[in-house]
UniProtKB/TrEMBL annotation:
Cellular component terms (Gene Ontology): cytoplasm
InterPro entries documented for this protein: CaBP1/2/4/5, EF-hand-dom_pair, EF_Hand_1_Ca_BS, EF_hand_dom
Domain EF-hand: 89-124, 126-157
Protein name as annotated: Calcium binding protein 2b
Entry annotated with the keyword Iron: no
Entry keywords, A to Z: Calcium, Metal-binding, Repeat
SUPFAM superfamilies in UniProt: EF-hand
One annotated GO molecular function: calcium channel regulator activity
Gene3D superfamilies in the record: EF-hand
Length: 157
């Protein structure tokens, strides 16, 4: 359940990546509705994806007519961007999510903070038993709180 809440938080952050995709395409689109194949590598790099020369050659062979429209660009970039982040939420995203749960900023998530964060992120009220179970499962040192290290371990299970 906590993973689901954190994933929802991260998805919101990744909405910004969609905006980045639009902006990258617009930067290389010369008001024709497409970008040239020769600009594809540079466009991808502006989005933070570093294609190899071999990837660019393979991509250019898949693109008919030497140009790619926005819809095909999104279809092309979606799997590439997901492959980079699949099964791996970065430390920054985990730290941001942890801060979202740790509302008082003391570096630990209490049962009250967990309950509030779950309601805020998931839009639902979990019962006390569910919250206790989540906290107990995550609280490896038994102090009744979840610190960042415990949070990361919980998210990686």
């Amino acid at each position: 359940v906590v993973k689901k809440a954190v994933c929802r938080f991260v998805r919101l952050k990744h909405s910004l990546a969609a905006i980045k995709t639009i902006e990258a395409f617009k930067e290389f689109d010369r008001n024709k509705g497409y970008i040239n194949c020769r600009d594809l590598g540079e466009c991808m790099r502006t989005m933070g994806y570093m294609p190899t020369e071999m990837e660019l050659i393979e991509l250019s062979q898949q693109i008919s007519g030497g140009k790619i429209d926005f819809e095909d660009f999104v279809e092309l970039m979606g799997p590439k961007m997901l492959a980079e982040t699949a099964d791996m939420i970065g430390v920054k995203e985990l730290r941001d999510a942890f801060k979202e749960f740790d509302s008082n900023g003391d570096g630990q998530i209490s049962i009250t903070e967990l309950r509030e964060a779950m309601k805020k992120l998931m839009g639902e009220q979990l019962n006390s038993r569910d919250i206790d179970d989540i906290l107990c499962d995550a609280d490896l040192n038994g102090d009744g709180l979840v610190d960042f290290e415990e949070f990361v371990r919980m998210m990686s299970r």
